Sequence to fold (698 residues):
Amino acid sequence: MKIWNCLGVLILVSLQLLFSAQATEAGIDENTMKAVYSFSFGKFTHWPELPNQRADKLGFCIFGENPFSRTVVDSYEGRIIKGRKLRIQIFDSGLLADDALPECQILYVSQSEKMRIRQVIDSLSHQPILTVSDIQGFSNQGGMITLVKSDDRITFEINPGALTRAGISISSKILELAKVVHTEPAVDD
Amino acid sequence: MFALQHIPIKAKLIAMMMITASIGIVIMATAIVVNEAQTKRETIVTELTTLAEVIGSRSTGSLTFNDPRTATENLSALQINKNVIYAEILDENNQVFAEYYPGFSYFPPPHDEELKLLNLFREWFPQLYRETIEVSIPIILDEQIIGTTRIISSLDAFYRNLIHYLGWIGIISVLCFLLSLIVSTSLHRLISKPIVQLNQAAKKVSVDNNYAIRLTAERDDELGLLINNFNTMLEQIEARDHQLEQHSHELEIQVQKRSSELLRVNQVRIQWLENMAKFLKHELKNATVGMNTSLDLIERRAAEAPIEKYLQRARKSIGFMRVLLDSVSHASSLEAAVHKEALTSLNLSRLIKDEIADYRVFYPQYQLVDECQDNIDILGNEDRIKQLLDKLVGNAFEHCKQDTPIQIGLSRNTENVMLTVSNEGVKLPEDKTRIFDLFVSLRDAVHWKSDSLGLGLYIVKLIAVSHKGTVTAEDRQDTDGARFTVTFPVLESSSTNEALETDAMNSGY
Fold:
């Protein structure tokens, strides 16, 4: 009897894992979808022109552990977005040097940096870098876009105030798709 | 085009102007309708394309981030276009991403007349008729086609508008046509009026022979020139008529003068002949009486044989003189009378046949051959014609060989009636024209069966001429002998009238 109970639990857990890791849409897994969405934000975003930035490159930086598969990263590396070549860099050492920031137009903050999210956001608050993350409440804490899993779909929240402060404008075409959120004041622990 | 040739010029001008105007109106109306249809269609396509582009552009985010709900909301903006019956957004794999159905008809159902016209248009132009129009526009993001916006719109409103437009064009065309009719009805007079006036004037000239008519040319165009030329032509004809009338009058006076002169000369001649005959008769009669008296005395006193012989010769001479006197008297009387005698219509065939029958009774020793055609009439005097035939037949009796036929023929052609008398015998003399003169006898007297004074053929000529005819003599070609031919004019109705007039004049004379 115990064996059957254990087997039933195992099947349920497996199914849960299977559905959670598997594609929310058309057989594509959740992380891949998040990667695709994150890359696509570049198509609807307008950055201010800065003298120390290369106009032909669009830097996509992953801060923390890389949640995306190698295949996805390789397939997007070098793609042209808004006439700029996509360059993907991974900063998984927990450090993001100041001299590397100009090369990042999009910064994806992975789940591994969940604990110091406020610090990261503060350090980037005046930089024209589009910050994206799937950490819950990322936009409420001052992040710009938060990817949210809703049922079998990936939706996103946008913090327009954060975008404005960073001097970044984002297309209304995705604003109407997103849930608009605002930065909540920090609560001291 | 052939039908236009037989209608009055007024109607012809109106018809020409109306046909031209109608062709222009129809072409213009057709061009306007075609242009309107084309423009409307292009407008619809442009509008749908713009809508598709806007919706596609707004749906790039939805396609990118897989949000069909928002795409459907974007499509619902098509509600502003009531003609759209279906729309969809396809993803990059041509799978339906979002759809739009209006769900109800925005238009009231078409009227029966509209339906009929639509059905007619569908039947007449199956190649042109389309129930819907479709626009497909790719959705491009960052130079990549990420989907397609497809809109299908109904063309019902387009055709309805077109039918209404056609109705208005039809009404305007009819108004233009009526206006053209009114204008052309007034304008045609510019050309038709002077032509009609010319026609009326020409008709009046031809009916009344009045060449004094003139038209007033109130214009400087070709019709004005035509009227001026018409007037000039009438002036020339009038002048020529006047000249002809003058010439005719002068000629008439001249003819009357000449005729009077001839008549006077002829009467003087006839009077002279009559006087001469009376004189000769009187004087010769006196001389004859004296000679007879003397001869009677001589005869009583001397009964000797030699004197008897001379006496007989003298009596014979006196007898000849008496015959001569009678002949001269007869000839002068005949010449005076023959021109005064009335001519009437008579059946010459019957007259001659009767005469031949009489000849056969009185002169059985001669063979008379009747070669006369029936029912030939002339204008003539019956007694004179009998006299003429007697002279010709008598002439033939005198000069024919024994037991040879004498042919009497009568025939006609379109102009003349020919009476011929032929006999076998001696030929005629060389100079055949003189044998019809008075007291001329050119044939050898040896061949004569009696003494001739040359009076018979002269009488024939007199009678023939008095009947407006001729007489000729010729040698026969088939044998030795002569043929005399008298011609008379063919009797016609006008000749009959003339005869009646001649009778009337003669009775008055």
Notes: Residues 6-24 of chain A have pLDDT under 50 and may be disordered. Residues 2-21 of chain A form the longest helix (20 residues).
